[in-house]
Amino acid sequence: MLNQQVVWSSPMFQSVLDRAHRIARFPSTVLIEGETGVGKEVVANWIHRHSSRAHLPFIKINCGAIPETLLESELFGYEKGAFTGAKNEGNPGLFELADKGTLLLDEVGELSPAMQVKLLRVLHDREVRRVGGSWSKTIDVRVIASTNKNLKEMVEKRLFRADLYYRLNVAYLYVPPLRERREDILPLLDHYLALISEEYQITRRFDNDTLALLLNHDYPGNIRELRNWVESLCVTAETELITPDLLLNQMLSFRPQPATTLQDQLEATEKRAISRALEEHQSIRRAAKALGISHPTLLRRMQKYGLKTAN
Questions:
Q1: Fewer CB in 10 Å around end: N or C, the chain?
Q2: Can you say whether the dihedral through the CA atoms of 199, 105, 39, 25 is positive or negative?
Q3: Is the Cα torsion angle 9, 14, 20, 21 positive or negative in sign?
């Protein structure tokens, strides 16, 4: 699927994929941590696709979206008559359905203490027993667990079992937030603009000032937020060209704040971009070259915003 493509440009995310590629060759359990919306599921897909199990099932479940009373039967299955409403023939759980393949346990940090114990037993024994059953079935499942929480800190606070943490954390991956790999923002914007334009049969493009605002936004919701912005702008724009006033109006409607003019917003964006370039290059001439402006122009802008360099 197009929306499951891995899109990146930054060396930081490349290192994540390189590590994921090495991990994919082995059947070890994987723990992926990172903020909401950074692409943990995309990385999990990458691992499965580059493993020897790529042609076998890849099953996903959000552990935080299912009530505990139902989660056990979802994961482990149930036998006939195990509970009121159970199918007469019983039902296999996701571990059985993922046999020989991969099972992604998303938001594993949301598991209750009781479910943590049951999951630990399955990972230790490599066997699963259905709810209401009297026999166990051996399974061969590659488990990938993901979470937006810091499981190590949860262990220290006794909110997550240490033994389960070490069972899950055999191969570890951390997916950094989008604000720490800003080189990925432009290719992601281009990708989702093309994707949404094709899906909705429309033609849209960003005004240069709109693009500047989008490139310098911090995206606390990460890639998920970026995609939502692109779709929202595409479907609400009245013309082919997406202008900055449309973006700013939507930003203000999502995050109410004192009214600011378009010029104020553009100047704030310019100031952030110059500050980042000066910090990164530690030289006015190199920063000017990176920004695509002349040395005198950068000096005037620095004077305007009261910016300085270490040099």
A1: N
A2: negative
A3: positive
Check: CB of residue 184 under 8 Å from CB of residue 178.
yes
- Residue 142 is inside which H or E element, if any? strand 142-147
Find out whether 229 and 214 touch, Cβ atoms under 8 Å: yes
The CATH homologous superfamily of the domain defined by 2-176: P-loop containing nucleotide triphosphate hydrolases (3.40.50.300)
- The torsion defined by the Cα of 160, 162, 164 and 167, in degrees rounded to 10, comes to 140
Nearest one of 60, 172, 75 to 116, comparing CA atoms: 75
Residue 25: which of 51, 44, 46, 43 has the closest Cα? 51
Mean pLDDT, range 282-288, rounded to an integer: 85
Extents of the domains making up the chain: 2-176, 180-305
| Residues 59-91 pLDDT 10s | 999 999 999 889 999 999 998 766 656 666 789
Out of 3.40.50.1000, 1.10.8.60, 2.40.10.220, 2.40.50.140, select the CATH number for domain 180-305. 1.10.8.60
Using CB atoms within 10 Å of the CB of residue 173, give its burial: 0 to 12 exposed, 13 to 18 middle, 19+ buried. buried
CA distances from 306 to 287, 290, 300 (A): 16, 20, 10
pLDDT of 310 above 60: no
